[in-house]
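Q: Given only this backbone (482 positions), what sequence would you predict?
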């Protein structure tokens, strides 16, 4: 889909449809003379009240070149923020494209071209890359019709295109099945993205990781015929750093999680291809960061492995040695995410990263706690978490601050090693976070458990079923705000 920012008067814009947002508590804009009576009548009839999610379509509207005029409910004017605009644009695109609309002109009342174009690009995405005959229709062009021009709105629009396309890049990676996306394929795709974006990329293979002593990561990888990779993608600001800070984005990259010998039930196991959603999110963020050029250096780390069952697979009771030297008793081979993340986090610290953020589909327990709405956010540094949560709020990605008191730490005691990799039945998302925390020490760190939010089991009006691409926009905003 191509998207464009236009300053033309709406009357002259040629499109299959033009869309305007109407609010519950506000009359239709008087300058839309051509449509004023229709819009008024629509509201008076009770058929359309302007509530969020409503859509009414008029064919052959008088006075404009567009073939249809769509009234889009915006809800209450005061609560129509950028998250609401993003959803409204997304829902409109998804409804109208199914009706055969190929080009849509969006009448923008604010300066927030970013949210409008993001909503459209995200809404137009379908996870149909492997259908030879897709039944999904798609929009070919999205035109943002702005009333004010200037650098601000142009930058806002450009940013929106970059962010949404990067988020869709992530979604496409997450949707890849595990037979087609092994750790080395993920590494090759990361390298190709880096090359195209002008970023450095280094892939650590099994030998290199053995040499370094990443026993925790390698223990998970040993059960698969597909070799592991630690993917490192670097962005450095031009013209020297203005800050001594260095942000690390670490993403869990389990291309498939069978659970290993502590095997998962068959029901729903196919979804475990999305166990690399954290890794895909940090790669998507890097793609956008390369274009938007924040002033802080950012390095992404994706430990990529496949958690399989075989005669080489790790057993419950195995004791492995992590890169930082601590020994771990593997009581459950299905708690593999934390085992690969700690070696990546330790490596990030060794490379000089001063602030660590990880995203991982880490626990079923976070889905029990927060459902599919909020990301679970954990930290050892409240101030840094505040920064991450502010970025998330700005981007309409919901996060909930989870506890990480010292009282939970004892859950990970092992009789035979420094630590066990599981903490018992209750508070599972918290003990998982504590396991990571044992390896970051005092370095400011935020852990985002995205097991409940990286995959939509049902389509939303504004987004297709499947991978959501969550965290990409938050990560970029975090880096840009440094
Ligand atoms: N990848 C899973 C977590 C997960 C569950 C992601 C549901 C998405 C949806 C993770 O590796 C896992 O299996 N965690 C175990 C930990 C347990 C053995 C302590 C879990 O949550 O059951
Ligand atoms: Zn697992
Ligand atoms: Zn997993």
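A: Predicted residues:
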């Amino acid at each position: 889909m191509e998207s464009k920012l236009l300053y033309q008067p709406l009357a002259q814009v040629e499109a299959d449809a033009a869309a305007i947002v109407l609010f519950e508590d506000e009359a239709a804009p008087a300058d839309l003379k051509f449509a004023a009576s229709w819009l008024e009548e629509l509201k008076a009839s009770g058929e359309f009240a302007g509530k969020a999610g409503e859509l009414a379509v008029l064919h052959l509207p008088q006075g404009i070149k567009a073939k249809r005029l769509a009234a889009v409910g915006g809800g209450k004017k005061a609560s129509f923020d950028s998250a609401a605009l993003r959803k409204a644009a997304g829902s409109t695109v998804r409804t109208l494209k199914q009706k055969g609309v190929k080009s849509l002109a969006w009448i923008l009342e604010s300066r927030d071209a970013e949210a409008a174009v993001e909503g459209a690009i995200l809404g137009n995405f379908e996870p149909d890359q492997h259908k030879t005959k897709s039944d999904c229709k798609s929009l070919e062009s999205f035109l943002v019709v702005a009333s004010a021009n200037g650098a601000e709105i142009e930058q806002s629009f450009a940013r929106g295109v970059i962010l949404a396309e990067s988020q869709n890049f992530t979604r496409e990676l997450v949707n890849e099945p595990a037979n087609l996306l092994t750790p080395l394929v993920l590494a090759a795709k990361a390298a190709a993205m880096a090359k195209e974006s002008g970023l450095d990329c280094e892939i650590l293979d099994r030998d290199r990781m053995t040499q370094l002593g990443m026993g925790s990561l390698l223990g998970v990888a040993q059960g698969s015929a597909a070799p592991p990779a630690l993917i490192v993608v670097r962005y450095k600001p031009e013209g020297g750093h203005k800050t001594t800070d260095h942000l690390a984005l670490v993403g869990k990259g389990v291309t498939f999680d069978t659970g290993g010998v502590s095997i998962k039930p068959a029901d729903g196991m196919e979804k475990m291809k999305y166990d690399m959603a954290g890794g895909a999110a940090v790669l998507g963020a890097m793609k956008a960061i390369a274009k938007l050029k924040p002033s802080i250096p950012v390095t992404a780390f994706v430990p990529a492995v496949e958690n399989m069952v075989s005669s080489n697979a790790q057993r419950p009771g195995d004791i492995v040695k992590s890169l930082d030297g601590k020994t771990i008793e593997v009581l459950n081979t299905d708690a593999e995410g934390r085992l690969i993340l700690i070696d990546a986090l330790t490596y990030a610290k060794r490379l000089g990263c001063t602030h660590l953020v990880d995203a991982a589909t880490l626990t079923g327990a976070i889905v029990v706690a927060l459902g599919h709405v909020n990301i679970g956010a954990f930290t050892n540094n409240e101030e840094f978490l505040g920064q991450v949560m502010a970025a998330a709020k700005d981007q309409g990605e919901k996060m909930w601050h989870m506890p990480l008191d010292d009282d939970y730490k004892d859950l990970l005691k092992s009789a035979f090693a420094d630590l066990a990799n599981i903490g018992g039945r209750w508070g599972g998302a918290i003990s998982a976070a504590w396991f990571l925390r044992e390896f970051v020490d005092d370095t400011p760190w935020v852990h985002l458990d995205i097991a409940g939010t990286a995959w939509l089991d049902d389509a939303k009006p504004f987004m297709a079923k499947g991978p959501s691409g969550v965290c990409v926009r938050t990560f970029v905003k975090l880096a840009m705000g440094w």
